[in-house]
Amino acid sequence: MDEEKVFKDPVHQYIYVQDRLIWNLIDTKEFQRLRRIRQLGTTYFTFHGAEHSRFSHSLGVYEITRKIISRFERNQYIEWPKEERLISLVAALLHDVGHGPFSHSIEKVLNTNHEEWSKSLILGETEINSFLRQIDSTFPSRVVDVINKKYEKPIVMDLISSQLDADRMDYLLRDAYYTGVNYGFYDLERILRVLRPYQGRLVVKESGMHSVEDYLMSRYQMYWQVYFHPVTRSGEILLRKIFLRAKNLFEEGYTFSTLFPPIVRLFQGQLHVDDYLILDEPMFFTLFYFWSQEKDQILADLTERFLHRRLFQYIDFNPNDQSKLEAILEFFHKNNIDPTYYLELDSPSDLSYDIYRPGDKKEMSPIYLLNRQGETIEISTKSDIIAVITGKRKTEHKIFFPEDLLKEKSILSQFQLLTR
Amino acid sequence: MDEEKVFKDPVHQYIYVQDRLIWNLIDTKEFQRLRRIRQLGTTYFTFHGAEHSRFSHSLGVYEITRKIISRFERNQYIEWPKEERLISLVAALLHDVGHGPFSHSIEKVLNTNHEEWSKSLILGETEINSFLRQIDSTFPSRVVDVINKKYEKPIVMDLISSQLDADRMDYLLRDAYYTGVNYGFYDLERILRVLRPYQGRLVVKESGMHSVEDYLMSRYQMYWQVYFHPVTRSGEILLRKIFLRAKNLFEEGYTFSTLFPPIVRLFQGQLHVDDYLILDEPMFFTLFYFWSQEKDQILADLTERFLHRRLFQYIDFNPNDQSKLEAILEFFHKNNIDPTYYLELDSPSDLSYDIYRPGDKKEMSPIYLLNRQGETIEISTKSDIIAVITGKRKTEHKIFFPEDLLKEKSILSQFQLLTR
Amino acid sequence: MDEEKVFKDPVHQYIYVQDRLIWNLIDTKEFQRLRRIRQLGTTYFTFHGAEHSRFSHSLGVYEITRKIISRFERNQYIEWPKEERLISLVAALLHDVGHGPFSHSIEKVLNTNHEEWSKSLILGETEINSFLRQIDSTFPSRVVDVINKKYEKPIVMDLISSQLDADRMDYLLRDAYYTGVNYGFYDLERILRVLRPYQGRLVVKESGMHSVEDYLMSRYQMYWQVYFHPVTRSGEILLRKIFLRAKNLFEEGYTFSTLFPPIVRLFQGQLHVDDYLILDEPMFFTLFYFWSQEKDQILADLTERFLHRRLFQYIDFNPNDQSKLEAILEFFHKNNIDPTYYLELDSPSDLSYDIYRPGDKKEMSPIYLLNRQGETIEISTKSDIIAVITGKRKTEHKIFFPEDLLKEKSILSQFQLLTR
Amino acid sequence: MDEEKVFKDPVHQYIYVQDRLIWNLIDTKEFQRLRRIRQLGTTYFTFHGAEHSRFSHSLGVYEITRKIISRFERNQYIEWPKEERLISLVAALLHDVGHGPFSHSIEKVLNTNHEEWSKSLILGETEINSFLRQIDSTFPSRVVDVINKKYEKPIVMDLISSQLDADRMDYLLRDAYYTGVNYGFYDLERILRVLRPYQGRLVVKESGMHSVEDYLMSRYQMYWQVYFHPVTRSGEILLRKIFLRAKNLFEEGYTFSTLFPPIVRLFQGQLHVDDYLILDEPMFFTLFYFWSQEKDQILADLTERFLHRRLFQYIDFNPNDQSKLEAILEFFHKNNIDPTYYLELDSPSDLSYDIYRPGDKKEMSPIYLLNRQGETIEISTKSDIIAVITGKRKTEHKIFFPEDLLKEKSILSQFQLLTR
C-alpha cells in the first residue's frame, strides 16, 4: 500500500492498516457481516451500552497483534520468526469470522460450531478465500490451522489464542469500555512491553509479573461482573428455549407461518456457506417478530418475551437442597407449564468461557515468566494472587423461570427473588 | 419506589431512576424497541464503534435532565417551577420514542414524521400511554406538547429541546464516546453548574460563557467531523435510493418476492401504531437481504451494496461549474444508468441538523447569559467565537455515484475521487 | 454560606464546599501549609508525575466523606447519626494536617509523630483552633479524638480511618492519577453506592463484594508497584541517612555553617507549633543545598546525592545468606566507608503502610458485608481473592548502597544490580 | 543503548528513551533541577492540582518530538533531513532548562532572561555541556541556536518552537491533565498523523485542518480559563511586588536579617552558572519565610501574604474611566499605603504568552496546510474559526489590591469585587 490507512477506534485510538491484504479482507462481504453480530450477545439486556459488534473486536485483535509484532521487529528480537508476520495478522483479524448470531448461547441447541464455520468461510468459495489465495494456494489452510490451534509454530497461536493473547487483551478492554464498568481495564501498553519471543513461545519478562496479575484479575472480575451476570444469562436461556421449541416444532412437522429458507436449512443441518452471510442478528430478530405471532403458544410467548425484554427471573439454588426446585416443578405440573421451555438450572462455570486453569486439557499451556537467568517459570508459582485463582472452578447455581407465570405467588414466599 | 435503581452507563457512569413511573416507562415494549434503532444511523460505516442505540441516548437525556432539576431543587432556586419535575423527566426520556430506523435519512422518501409517531405512541393504545394516564388523564397530551414544543412553560422545553438542551448535551458526549473522536467532549459538570432558571427560562450565568463556547465548538466539530462525514452521507444516500426504488416499484405494481406486511402498509401510508413496534433496523436489514435477491436489478444491486458496504464514491462539486456533473450524466445516459438511483448531489447544510442560528424560524430562541446585574444578554454579542459561527450556513457540495459503474474510467481522470 | 463553592479537582472533577467552617479551615495558614508537603514523599524520583501535595489529597478525602454522608442523608438512612456530619467533614479535611515533610521517612530518626502534631495544631493557638471553637469549645478536642481513633462513635472513624475509608479511597485514585499507573483505579461510585450505616458501623451491601475485591486488589498493586518501589525506598533511605548524620553531628557538637533556628529546635526536641508552619519541604531542600557545602564530607555527600538524584543502588538479599552483605561490609571496612550512613537493609513490609490484616492490633476492625438477612459477615470469609491477601505479610529484602563508592567493582560481579 | 528505557508518564503513558545521550542529559544536575521549578508558577493557587514541574513537561516535549520524527522515519518521508534527529530531540528536552523559579512572573523585575540562562547552561562548564561535547565540539552551540531560533534549518525550529510545536502540544495536554480542566484536550495522535515535512518546513495535510482548529481552540480556552485566570495573576503580582520591594531595599542599603548569597548576586546582576542550580522554588519559599520576619513592614507583609495565600483581590477596570482607580489611590494616599507595592493594573494580553497572531514580529511564521495539489495555504484563509481568533488581541483590564487594607469599606460600595 502506498500509505498506511487508519480506522478510528474508541479503544485503541487508531487501527493501523499497512498491508493491502488486510485492507481487502476487511472489505469482504464475509467480514462486513460481523457488523451485524454483537460481540456480547444478550449482555446489552444488562448493560445497555454493550451494543458493539464482532467487527470492532476483530479489528482490535488485529491491532494488538500488529503492535506486538511491530515491537518485536523494532527491537530486532532474533527469536521472532519474521516470516510469520502476515499469517499472524490475518489469523488475528479472522479468528471470529465463523461466529453466528448469539453463537455462544445457541450452538449446542442448533448443533453448529463456529470453528467449523470459520474453516468453511476461509476455505470455501468466498471473497476471503480468493484474497488469501493471492498470497499462496496453501495460505488459506494455514490460516485455518492457526485459528484451530494446529499450526506448526506455537508462538503464532500464542499471539491469537492463549491465556494471554490479543483476543482476550482486546475484549477485556473493549467490553469494559462499552459496558461502562471499570473492571476490565489493565495496562495494555505495559503488557506489550514485557512480552518476548523465547524458544518458540511467547513469554513475559519477570519484571512484568504484576501487570499480568492485574490483567488476570481483570478477567476474573469481568467474568463474574459482566459475562456471567444473571440477567445476561437469563437472556441466553430465553434464546436457547426459543430455538429448542422451534426445532422441536420443526421436527414434529409443525407448519410455521413464517420460516425463512436459511432457517429451514439450519434446522435440517444443511446450512451452506452462502446462507451464513445472512444468518445474522437482524434475521433472528425479524424471525422472532414473526414467531411472536405464531399460533404455537409457547413459541409466541418466548419470542415476545425476548423482543420486549420480559426475561425469566432467578433464585439461588443449592444443589444439595432440591426443595425449591421441587416446589416449582410441582406448581408447573399442576398448572400445565412445561419446564422444558420454562425452567433452567444454570451453573455458569460449565460454560466454555474459561478462567485460567493450567492442566485443563482444552486449555492452552500456562503463562511463563522469563527471569534474568533465562529460565522460564510458570506464573502461578511466583504469584500468590494468581495461585489462588488457578484451577479453581467457581460455580454459581441458579434457577431461572418466569416469575409472572406463578399465579399462586405463595410459592415464592419460600425463597427470595434475586432480580434487581 | 423503595430505593433508587441504577443503570450502568459508559457516559454518565450511572443513570439514576427514582420514580416508579420512569422505571415502568423504560420497561414498556415501545421504549425497549429503541434498542433496535441505532442512534447514528449509517455512521457506523465510517466510525465502526458508533453502534449505540437510541435506547442508550434516551436514558442519557433523561439523566442529564434529572441532574439539572436535582441541582435546582438542592439549591432551592425559587424560579424553578417544582411541579414540572415529572413531566420534564418523562419528556426527556420519551423525546425520541417516535424515531423509526434511519429516520433522518428516509422520512422524506417515505413521507413519515417521527414527531407525529411520538404523538401516536404516547396518545395511542400503548403501554406508555397506560402508565402515563395513571398520573392523570391529561398527562399524555401534556408530554406530547413538550416534545412538540407547544407546552405552556418554555423552561420545560428549554430543558429538552433548545440550543443548550439535555438532548444535545447527551448526544455530543455519547457520540464522541462511541465513535472514539475527541471533538464532542466538553465540561458537562461545569455547564450544569452555570444553568439557572430565570424569568421562566433557562439561562447561563455569565461566568460560564467560556464553557458554553467550548460546548458550541464541540457541536461545530462534531457536525463536520462526524455527522456530515461523506462516508456517512454516502450510506444515507444509498438508503434513500433503496426506498425510492422500492416505493416506485410498489407504485408501478411490481410483484415483490418478499414484502413484509408492515412494509406494505408503510408504502400505502397506512402504518398503524402496532406496526411501529416491529419497524426496526433488524426488519430493514432482513428485507434488504431478500431484496438483494429480487429480480429487479436496481433494487437487488442497491441493497447488496448496502449490506456489504459497497458505498457510492464522491467528488467535490462547485455549483457554479456543472462540467463534472455533465460528464457523469452523459456517461450514465450513454450506458443506460439511471441517475435517479445512482447519482446524488449532496449539500449537507440542507439537512435538518442545525447549527446555532438565531433568527432561523424553526430554531429555538438563543442562549442567554445572566449577568451580575440580573440582565440577560444573547451570548453571541459577548463571545467572538460564537459570533463567528452564528447564522453562518456552511455548505459542502459533493456528487455521489458508484465509481465501479464507470467502466470507462477515463472519465475520472478529470477529477479526483475523495474517498479515503 | 449563601451558595456552594467549588474547587476544580482532577480526580473528583469538583470539590464542593457547602459549609462556611470548611471554607474557613481551608484558608488557614496551617492548612495552606499542606501545599508545601508532597503527598508521596520521594516517589517523584520514580514516577516523575507524582508531584501532588497533601493539600490536594486532604480536599479529596473531605469530598469523598461529603459524598458518602450526602448519600446517607438523601436516602434517609435512619442508622446514620445526622449530628455527626460536620465533625466527620472536619476530621476528613484535617486528618493529615500534622504531617511534616517526608514524615513517613524521617519521623523515627527525628523522634516526631504526626498524630501528636495534628493534636497540637488543632488544640493549640492556631487559626484552625479558633475557627473550630466557634462551633463549640469542645469541638477541637472531639476532632482530635476522631483523628486519633478515640471518638465515641465508631462509624465516624470508619469513614476517616478504616480498611475502607475516605482516606484510602482518595489516595489510591489520586496517586494512580498523578503517577500515571493504572493500578489504583477502582469503581469509586459503585463503592459509595454499596456503603451503609448499620448498627453503629459502616458496612458494605453484600452485592458490592466484588467491587471491594477490586478496591483491595488496587491497594495491593499500588503498594508493590508504587509505594514500595525500590527507587522510592532508596530516596527515603537517603533522607534518613542525611538526618541521622546531621543529628549525630549536632549531638557531637559539630558547628554547622548553616542551621536554621527551627531545625535546631527540631534536633533539640523542642519544636513548637509556630515552627511547624515553616517546617516544609522547601525548607528541607534549601537546607540540603547549604549542607551540601558543609565541611563534613558525609553530610555534604549525602545531601548532594539527594539534590541531584544520585541514589543508592540495590540488590536482592536473602536473610538466610549473609555472604553478599559480608562482602560489602568487608569492602567498606577496608576502604573506611561508614555503613551507618552508606548501607541499609530494607524490608518494606516493616513499614507502617498497612495491607489488609484483620487481627493485627494496630489495625481497625475488618470490612463487613451486610447480607439480605441483615447479618454481617467478615469479607474474607466470602471472597477467595481477599482471603489470599488477608494477614499475609509479604516482604522483600534488599540491600541499598552507593554503587559508585565501590571502586573495586569486582565485588559486584558476585551479584546483580537491580537498578533499572 | 542496549535496550530502550521508559519513564511512566500520566500524559503520554510512557516516555521512550532510545539514545544514551538523552539518558545522560536527564541525569545531569542541571536537568534534575527542573524538578524543583513548577511548570505553572502560581497557578496552583487557583487550580490546586497544578503542582507539576518543568521536568515532567520537558520529558513530554521530548517525547512528542520523538514521536513525530519516528513517524517521519517509518514513513520514509524524503523531505525529512534524517541527520537532524538527535539535535531535535536534545533541543526539545533542553528548551526550558534555563527557566528559573516563577520566571514568567519575575524576569522583568530581576532583569534576568531564561533564554540567556539556557545558553549559559548549555555552553558553560556544566554536566550538560560535557555530555553534548561528546557528540562534537560544535554540538552545544548548535543546540543553543535551535532554542534561540537561529538554527539554519527552519524545520527543526518548527518542531520545537512554532505555532504548532511539541512544546505547546505537550503543555496544553499536561496543564489540562493536572489542573483537571477539560479545555486543553485535543486529538494529539490525529495531529501527529497529519504533520508532514515539506520544502524545509513542517506543514499540515489539508484534511487535518479541523484537528488544528480544535487544537487552536484548546489554546484559546486554556489562556482565558487557566493561564490568565485572575487568581493566578494575583499570585504573580504578589511575587513581583515582593521582589520589587526586596530589590529596592537592597539598593537603598537596607540590612536584611536573612539574605542567601545567591540572592545577593542575583540583586547585583552577578549570578553565575553554579548559583543557578540552587535558584529554585524551595529557595524562594524559604527566603519568603525569613523575609516574613523582617523588620521592614512591607516586605514582611507581602511575603506573609504569599506564603498563606492571602492574595490581592481584583475588580474590573475600564481604561476610559479612571474613577475607580482614583478612589483607591486617594484612599491609599490618605492612609499612607504605597501603591507601588499594593496596587497593580493588569491587562493580560501584554504578557509574552502568545495567541496565534501571524504578522507579529516576535512570532514564528503561520501554520500552513498542504493540499492535494502540493500547494501550501495559510490556515486562517481556509478556516473561519481560526480566522476569527487570528491577530485579535483580546485584553482584560483589572485592578488588583488587598481588599483587607481598605478599612473604610465604603469605598468598595462603588464597585463589585470579583473574587470568587
From TrEMBL, chains A, B, C, D:
GO terms for molecular function: dGTPase activity. It comes from the Bacteria. Residues 50-181 form the HD/PDEase domain. GO terms for biological process: dGTP catabolic process. Pfam families: HD, HD_assoc_2. Gene3D superfamilies: Hypothetical protein af1432. This is HD/PDEase domain-containing protein. It comes from Tepidibacillus decaturensis.
